[in-house]
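Hey team,

Filing this mostly as a record. A colleague (T.K.) asked me to run one chain through the structure pipeline before their review meeting, and I want the input and output archived in the tracker in case anyone asks later how it was produced. No errors, nothing strange. Just documentation.

Input sequence:
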Amino acid sequence: MTATDQWAQEGGECGELLRARDWSRTSLGALESWPSELKMLVGIVMAAQQPMYVVWGPDQIVLYNDANARLYGRKHPRAFGRPFREPLSDHMWQEMEPYMTAAYEGIATSRAKAAFTFFRNGHPEEAFLSFSYTPVRSAKGDVLGMFCSCHEMTTDVVKQRAHDEERKQLRDIFQTSLGALAVVRGPEHIFTFANVEYEQLIGHRNLLGRSVAEALPEMVEQGFIQLLDEVYMSGKPYVGKGVPVTVQWMSDTAPQQRILDFVYHPLLDQNGRSEGIFVQVSDITEQHLLKRELAHRLKNQLAIVQAIVSGTFRSNSDKEEIRNILAERIAVLARSHEIVVSGNVESRTVDGVVRNAIEWQDDGRICIEGPDIPIAPRAALSLALVLHELLTNAIKYGALSVAEGRVTIHWSREESGDVQRFRLVWKERGGPDVKAPDHKGLGSRLIAAGLSGSCHSQVVHSFEPDGVSCEISADLAGMHAE
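Output structure:
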């Protein structure tokens, strides 16, 4: 059987080119006279499904198969049976020449995912090839040519790039997401990712490449490693709500309890097997404390409302008057709470509290003056209630019950030894003759209570003939305390 007969059924388009060419006019000579090494290699190339080619002789004639022809693009079939250098651009030859030279010097080389710029379709294209160049020797050891088996990886590299870019975008999103996020891999639960909030939550300890048990030893005793094991083995997520967790912020600090919501979500491979766990944590400690504080404050305010209602009924018998007094006192309580929860800076100062307390009855006869002094919610609420009672009494019985009457409200900071104190003076002038009340009702008791939350709060409530005065003093630090 001749070489032509052997290749008659092999090689596809390139096989036909091989059989149709008059090789006697080339440096390779007639087909039948080719050396056995070349015939064997060409037979392997033509039968192969993956890209292969042979470069032979001093002229470096290239013979390739149909799979390799796709790499040449529009330069096929002109490149078939021509010198290897001819169809290559100068840039491409600069990249390939070192490998070709090495092969003809008897040195085998290989590359994985090597980047090249092809001009196979008339324009530059980035391509990636994995290939090996193997010298072909004669029986005497002389290099006759070179055999190449290659695989174009361009599609795989482009997909991997897209995948890597997508992962990078996700990591960037996770890094800036609200909430603490982390990823642990394998049965050992090795940290491979943690965003800034997660690092803050655990005290900026070294995480990446370490197991949860190694990086966060306090989690072992609290049962979280067991939870991670169960999620990893079962492939089912776990959700924790309002879980108390003791966190060791730093090695030299005391452990601190936080209240956390968290999710352990398994990461499954294409076969449904667990390969890691996505961890999402929300620190709800502050919300938890706020809920407790809200419940406490609501309980206190209900007690105040109850005291207002009870005291008003004890001090008055007229139903219409009771209704009006209750409406006014509850209204001032509501306005005081608006001061406490509002984000307005002015409403968290003494000036803001005073203005809010008198605005519903101020007709220009009330003069206020004092420096800018911050005030905490509890003290603000107390001061607003005291001012309301003084204002109510002034309108009903005191200076504001007549057109000529006036009220001044003045406050200041004062030094008392090493302690700074707050002092507010309410003074009425121009009203009817004043006399002390026969009994003390709820209003008097509210005034006498002073400023809630401050230490050494003192109230002097005087009923002088020329007008009522009330002096309130308290330590300044206590007024600022939340």
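Quick notes for T.K.: Residues 17 and 443 are 112 Å apart (CA to CA). The longest strand covers residues 125-137.
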